[in-house]
Amino acid sequence: MQKTLIAVAVLTALSCSHALAADTAADPQDSTATSSTTTAKLDTVEVTGSRIPRAQVEGPAPVVIITAKDILNNGYGTVADVMSALTQNLGATDNNQNTNGFSPGAQAVDLRGLGPNHTLVLVNGRRIADYPQSYQGNSNFTDISNLPTSLIERIEVLSGSASAVYGSDAISGVINFILKKKADGTTIDFREGDTQHGGGSSQRLQITSGYSNGNFDSIFGVEFYNAKPLWAYQRSFTDSRLDSPATGSKLYADPVFVIMDEDENYIDPGKATCDALAGYDQGSIVYAYRKNYGNYCGSYKDIGYGTLENGRKAVNFYGSATYHINDSMELFVDLQAGTSHQESYNTPLKWENSYQLNGDSSPVPFFNQATNQIEQWQRQYFTIEENGGFDAGKIRIIDNTYSLNTGIKGSLAGTNWTYEALFGHSQNQLENKEPALISSKAQALYLGPSLGIDPDSGYNIYNAPYSRLYTPLTVAQFRSITQDSVDNDSSRSENFSFTATNTELFNLPAGPVGFAGVAEYGNQYYGLKPDPLSLDGTYFGLHNTGAVGSRDHMGTGIEFSVPVFSKLNISAAGRYDRYEYSATTASKFTYSLGIEYRPFDSLLLRGSAGTGFRAPDLSYLYAGLSGSSSGGTDYFLCRRDEPGTAPDFLDDCSNGDVGYNGRSHGSTALKNETSKSYTYGFVYSPIKGLDITADYYIIKLNNEVEYQTTDAVLREEADCRLGQTPGGTPVDINSAKCQDIISRVVRNPANSANNPEGITSVLVVPINAAVDRTSGIDFDAHYKLETDRIGSFDFNLGYTYVATHTIQLFPGDAVNNELTDLYNYVIPRDKTSYSVAWTLDKLTTTIHGSRIGGLPNYDGTQRLGPTFVYNGSLNYRFNSHAALTLIVDNLFDSKPGKDSTWTGYPYYSRSWYSPIGRAYFVEFNYRFGGSESK
């Protein structure tokens, strides 16, 4: 019988699945449905979630299978597209629309919405190195943007805690990308795509082949990918500030050329001045007015000069070779290597004299001798013409990845024992190059040398005629005040492991007991090495942080599958992991238990329970000192000097909104995050071709690492300095906690030791504080209808409903409901994925739909209606060697969801909506040689 791996296989929330059925699964083109099931008898295979091979296609908890055919027929162009449609992927993550920040263009996946650092990503069952930059400046994560879509055989998704199987990182689930392991001839696959409204065209070429000779077998594949960027000016809803739903005083042009007085009122340049600049920024400069500020030279269209989807060129290679020493022993090596060159364009650089050169956020107006008044100058954006065109202003990221796994595996003759000894090495090296403006050079160019200090105001004196600001720079002048800031970041992971399995360790009356054991040792390295000038405030608006550190890891685990009687099977796993870094060790024993009860052949009742832990991220441990402009309430001065003001002080206290430097760095004093996870549900096949699964899940994460907020630090500082809380509870200023808190708040020089004044800076560090809990329901249904005359039909439905998601960030805080706090958490309550496929002889056509439950509006006052996107495909197989596929993504050309309150550019949520619109693809597949049966 042909071996077909479908749908949901084994969880136990157990073992560390390294081989994962790649050798026994059939061609993915033979599988027709995501999350489908079958009652056919299968050979034993190994599926994500357990090391013990088994014949049943269902286990204690669900593992969703997405095949290569699903990826093709559902219109997914990239791995990120596949993960976006996955209903269990519930986090609002960064993606290819992000053009700046800490990891621009990298794409993460977030099962259950617990953060991408809690989802473990594997390739062929093996770990890969983290992305060499931190996610949103905080945690480590795995970038999925460089995984070669066309080389994927299938994706297995286990959504739930699996630390007892995989150790750290697998608290919210595991995603295992299994690449093709067999070649039937040589296959060439070419895909060409374009968008209806322009921009974002793409090409992809994939070649796979193999070679066998005697005891040697191999397969290799290479993928070439090219995607043009999509620019904001290429979409009518993002090409101008006039696209904003804002009205009245909230709708104004960006201030490109601005001179302000001491109180930040605009000094009118006159219409003639702005008219002389009208040809700049692609002819968009106008004489503009902003209520309560005044007249200035600005642009409504400058925000359109950025990328909505980043451009990318990539080459990915995958190869696997096996040498069969004898019938029971083989040597193997797997190699994956790739390089990607990403280009994005944020908004053009800016400069203001209102920030000091060291990055302090204190305003510093100057006395202008040329006008005899106090002023502040601002170039909110340098124009495209000053920049020398778009190309010079691009952010360029070169990412090189490499992964090698080699070892020996086999079986002991005459026994049921199998083994694998493995060495794995994975690394990721990244060069991030972006234009940066040197503050001191810009200030010298515009203001000239300082002429001393004005005795009346205390400000620096400059002689700066207005013509300096209102005369656009030449390209040479602009180059003289800018340069590329280059970061070189890297990450590495190495691992030695030994695995032993036995499907018949011994026999019970109900059947054989299965066993798996694993021992691992490894090392991780993480190094952020930024441009030194980005650390000291030399660049305007650019302040990076460094982080260099490593840790060692060892782990051992065992797993059992026990048939209690013919209808009941119990599986259990236990694992001990230990991490060592600096002078610290972090260790934990985790366990899991699974149960399967089949009261009759068509019904499976199942459940699982497990504990998990996560050692602190290397980013949290070793992050260097970072700084940024910040602001908040000075609770100490408000409570000391104005005790009658309102509790929040924001409206009534004169120090209710003050500016200061926000500083942060990592901490090696962090403890493990721990979790508990439960699932229970059923699989029911009432009639031929129909399978229904439903599972309820609960995950509770304790000691989640979060950076302290400056607000919390300032509240505690006020308690310590004043000796009591606002409620009157005594606080000892000499306690270790108070001394630590007070040391983190740097204040301006005091008039006396007992009279410290305004805040200079506030330091925050990561701590184990948050309690994060989520629960919900996963539902899947598949129905296959075979007919004699009109072919076969496949219906698939996947649905995830989030029942609860609460978080308590710090002890003593109120428990926050993320599903009702619509302002801070832009997440849906449910997601749905559904498709119908019709196959008649050589023709297959598929309609796939995705539904996102109503997202919160920008103001956080209500949930909007659901949004839908549909893809369609038509596949025609001419013969066993050639096939043509036509794909239309976003059939109805749906735009990002409309929200009358979303006044922040680009006026929709980048995490959930795509600006591409309708896109067309044609894909041709041809196979040379090989069998005639396909």
Comma- or semicolon-separated keywords:
934 residues, 41 strands, mainly beta
Task: Write a structural description.
The protein is built from 13 helices and 41 strands. The protein has 934 residues and is mostly beta strands. Helix 11 (635-641) runs parallel beside helix 12 (710-722). The protein has a 22-stranded antiparallel barrel. Strands 10, 11, 12, 16, 17, 18 and 21 form a seven-stranded mixed β-sheet that branches. The longest helix has 13 residues, at 710-722. Strand 35 and strand 36 (816-817) form a beta hairpin. Helices cover 9% and strands 45% of the residues.
Secondary structure blueprint with pairings:
Elements: E1 63-67, H1 68-73, H2 79-85, E2 119-123, E3 126-127, E4 152-158, H3 163-166, E5 173-179, E6 186-195, E7 202-213, E8 216-227, E9 230-231, E10 254-261, H4 271-276, H5 280-283, E11 285-290, E12 294-299, E13 307-309, E14 311-326, E15 329-344, E16 351-352, E17 366-368, E18 373-379, H6 384-387, E19 395-411, E20 417-437, H7 439-447, E21 461-462, H8 467-470, H9 475-480, E22 482-508, E23 511-528, E24 547-565, E25 568-581, E26 584-600, E27 603-614, H10 618-622, E28 626-632, H11 635-641, E29 658-664, E30 673-684, E31 690-707, H12 710-722, H13 736-744, E32 745-747, E33 759-764, E34 766-786, E35 792-808, E36 816-817, E37 830-840, E38 843-852, E39 867-877, E40 882-889, E41 919-928
Parallel strand pairs: 2-5, 17-21, 29-33
Antiparallel strand pairs: 1-4, 2-3, 4-5, 6-7, 6-41, 7-8, 8-14, 9-13, 10-12, 10-18, 11-12, 14-15, 15-19, 16-18, 17-18, 19-20, 20-22, 22-23, 23-24, 24-25, 25-26, 26-27, 27-30, 28-29, 30-31, 31-34, 32-33, 34-35, 35-36, 35-37, 37-38, 38-39, 39-40, 40-41
Helix pairs in contact: 11-12, 12-13
